[in-house]
Amino acid sequence: MAWLLLLVAGLFEIAWAIGLKYTVGFSRLWPSVFTVLAMVVSVVCLALALKTIPVGTGYAIWTGIGAAGTAILGIVLFGEAATVARLLCIGLILAGIIGLKIFSGEAGA
């Protein structure tokens, strides 16, 4: 259950990071409300996941999901560069996330 919460936390991190773009510096009400709610959900899910997942592993995976997902959505939604080097770097982040999960040392990991 903790790993599922961590995944949800990471997905909501992507949501609030992308949401920041739509808030236009928190000058638009509804995108700002959505973004703040996504921040709260993300941090609450992270905190619950960290009750059983080691903090270093959980935090790194949370930020990795957020970084990779936000970079991918930046490409898809905002036309950001999709160079081979950039995609390889995103792949390295994903490899790190998978490696941390595999080698976390958690029972039931």
Explained architecture:
There is one protein chain. The protein is mostly helical and 109 residues long. The protein has one domain (2-102). It has four helices and no strands. Helix 1 runs antiparallel to helix 2, helix 1 (2-23) packs across helix 3 (55-78) and helix 3 (55-78) packs antiparallel against helix 4 (84-102). The radius of gyration is 15 Å and the shape is flat. The protein starts with a helix and ends in a 7-residue tail after the last helix. The mean pLDDT is 95.
Q: What is the helix content?
A: over 70%
Order of helices and strands: HHHH
Number of strands: 0
What general outline do the C-alpha atoms trace? flat
Biggest sheet character: none
Q: Total number of helical segments?
A: 4
Residue fraction in strands: under 5%
Which structural class is indicated by helix and strand composition?
Answer: mainly alpha
Q: Calculate the terminal CA-CA distance, rounded to whole Å.
A: 11 Å
| Poorly predicted runs | none
